[in-house]
Write a structure and sequence with these properties.
Length: 597
């Protein structure tokens, strides 16, 4: 299996690094005051920590005369300092963690908001499970960064700088010796850091892959089982998961190596300095108290360096996560709303024009799905689209809703090109019953209300009646309030279809698009729905895609599609008389139909 995101990774490796976290700034700016507050709390606690070694020196070197009096004062002051430290730490925790949760909630909402609006071409190449993994796992990484790593990073940076300054004050000579060790510490960080970062991103990519893989298989669990494909699916999932484990293992090894090198170098360096310091104390060049003070500062500084190297790794992981989220946020949709949209005509009369539309699906640029389709549907007309499977009927509906843009030609609604109006606006004029009925994990009632969120219960029921759905919904255990399961798994195919039809009826839009809307219904329900559709299509522009020609016989006009072309256009009778593809299909169906009736 190929390594995911390898190209992207190499391309970015040198340019962005931890700087990728900058992309989080826009999410932080609304909460500036918290950032400032956290900064203040941090500075307070860091300064307080840096005062303690001075007190230690005083205690070691003794207070001279009036010692008892001073000692009391010192301990009183120490309690005060402890209180400030406690408050500062608590405040920092509260502000920073809350900030992290807030920002991550915003990022999740922003990413979802962007993704839900992407046109379908985007999802042809990306598993939805991957997007979900990015919204959950990657944002969790960012949460840990904002919620702790960053403040931990700043605190340790402050402690490092403060500790270093105080070391200088205490003993310049010893400090210079300590500084000589620094390059030896930084080298391995630089050497291994880059590797660590690319491994992090790889790891996250594999995790996303494994979520994508799992969600796809789980959604189709029944099909997987029906084909006894469980073992293969398990193997596939295990393979992806193991790959994620392997890249995690590589990352952990590099981190562990880094930790070993740094801790050893730092501690042996400090021991060396201590050695020299101890000699100085014996030679009376410095007091024991000063050496203690110096050592505590050195300890603080070394501790912060160790912490920083660890946090650096965290930050790199989060940088990878941020990159991945930013990728989603910056994803270009190839269908865009115009900058200055024209208003949708009100009311929409429902005139539809396809003007020499040539269309290739973006994922299949070589073959045209439509080769120059030209037709007009007058307001209120009922037009049927028929033709063999794969002829381009659903494609026409997809283009009409502007899920894709034609490669050339133009599609107009009431004379206005679709590309000049805002999608969410003109789509209000359409009610679609898609080829695969979509039902959400909610109640029957809410599923129908989806068509028009402000509809009353009575209107929902009326729509259900019209779609021949009222009887079966009433018979459900909780009637309209019955939960229908994820994707409507607790309903039959025909029941799902009637819910989808009821939804479209409720929408009450000027243009009705039915894609095989009654294909899963028994003859009786179908006839009932037909009547409802006939009723509804009065005064509305209606496009009906159907394989069963009985359902399109009474249409005002029939467009016959074949291989992405409109090969005939007429009424049932004229088309039968013409004796082309339609006549052939009709002969097949109606003789079969007659035999069955
Ligand atoms: N998302 C897609 N990406 C690439 N090609 C696609 C996509 N969707 C459909 N096609 C191709 O476009 C052609 C037309 O498909 P379309 O769905 O319009 O057929 P249809 O007439 O609705 O068929 P059916 O009666 O089976 O529903 C087919 O050859 C199909 O393989
Ligand atoms: Mg279709």
């Amino acid at each position: 299996m190929a390594q995911p995101g390898k190209d992207a990774q190499q391309e970015r490796a040198s340019s962005k690094r931890v700087g990728a976290l900058r992309a989080l700034f826009p999410f932080l700016t609304p909460y500036r005051q918290y950032v400032v507050l956290a900064g203040i709390a941090l500075t307070i606690t860091a300064s307080v920590s840096l005062l303690l070694p001075i007190a230690a020196r005083r205690v070691v070197d003794g207070f001279g005369d009036g010692a008892v009096h001073l000692l009391d004062r010192y301990f009183m002051a120490a309690i005060g300092i402890a209180a400030i430290f406690a408050l500062g730490t608590g405040l920092r925790y509260y502000v920073v963690t809350r900030l992290g949760e807030r920002v991550v909630a915003d990022i999740r909402a922003a990413v979802f908001g962007r993704m839900i609006g992407m046109s379908p071409a985007y999802y042809e190449k990306l598993l939805t499970g991957e997007v979900i993994s990015r919204i959950t796992t990657d944002t969790t990484l960012i949460l840990s960064v904002i919620g702790s790593s960053v403040s931990w990073f700043l605190r340790n940076t402050l402690m490092f700088l403060g500790g270093l300054a105080m070391m200088f004050v205490t003993s310049g000579k010893l400090t210079l010796m300590v500084l000589a060790i620094v390059p030896i510490v930084i080298l391995p960080i630089l050497a291994l850091g880059r590797r660590l970062r690319s491994l992090s991103r790889e790891n996250q990519d594999w995790i996303a892959r494994s979520s994508g893989n799992a969600s796809e298989a789980l959604q189709a669990a029944q099909t997987v089982q029906a084909f006894s494909h469980e073992a293969a699916s398990r193997e596939q999932f295990t393979e992806v998961t193991e790959a994620s484990y392997r890249s995690a293992k590589a990352r952990i090894s590099v981190r562990a190596l880094l930790t070993i090198v740094i801790i050893f170098v730092v501690f042996s360096g400090i021991l060396g300095v201590l050695w020299i310091g101890a000699r100085d104390v014996r030679a009376d060049v410095m007091t024991a108290g000063e050496l203690v003070q110096f050592l505590i500062y050195a300890g603080i500084m070394a501790g912060s360096v160790a912490a920083l190297s660890e946090i650096w790794g965290e930050l790199q992981r989060a940088a990878g996560a941020t990159e991945r989220l930013v990728e989603l946020l910056a994803a270009e949709d190839n269908v865009k709303d115009p900058e200055h949209p024209r208003p949708v005509p009100t009311p929409v009369t429902g005139e539809i024009v396809f003007d020499d539309v040539i269309f290739h699906y973006p994922s299949r640029p070589a073959d045209a799905a439509l080769h120059g389709a030209t037709f007009t549907v007058s307001p209120g007309e009922q037009v049927a689209l028929v033709g063999p499977s794969g002829a381009g009927k659903s494609t026409v509906l997809q283009l009409l809703l502007r899920f894709y843009d034609p490669s050339s030609g133009e599609i107009r609604l009431d004379g206005v090109p679709l590309s000049e109006m805002e999608r969410s606006e003109f789509r209000q004029a359409f009610a679609l019953v898609p080829q695969d009925s979509v039902v959400f994990a909610d109640t029957a009632r809410e599923n129908i209300r989806f068509g028009r969120p402000d509809a009353t219960d009575a209107e929902v029921e009326a729509a259900a009646r019209a779609a021949a759905a009222h009887d079966f919904i009433s018979a459900l255990p909780d009637g309209y309030d019955s939960y229908v399961g994820e994707r409507g798994v607790m309903l039959s195919g025909g029941q799902r279809q009637r819910i989808a039809i009821a939804r479209a009826i409720l929408r009450d839009a000027p243009v009705l698009l039915l894609d095989e809307a009654t294909s899963a219904l028994d003859s009786e329900s179908e006839q009932a729905v037909q009547r409802a559709v006939a009723e509804m299509s009065r005064g509305r522009t209606t496009l009906i895609v159907a394989h069963r020609l009985a359902t399109v016989k009474q249409a005002d006009r029939i467009l016959v599609f074949e291989g992405g072309r409109i090969v005939a256009d007429g009424t049932h009778d004229t088309l039968v008389a013409e004796g082309g593809l339609y006549a052939r299909l009709a002969r097949l169906q109606f003789t079969d139909g007659l035999a069955a009736e």
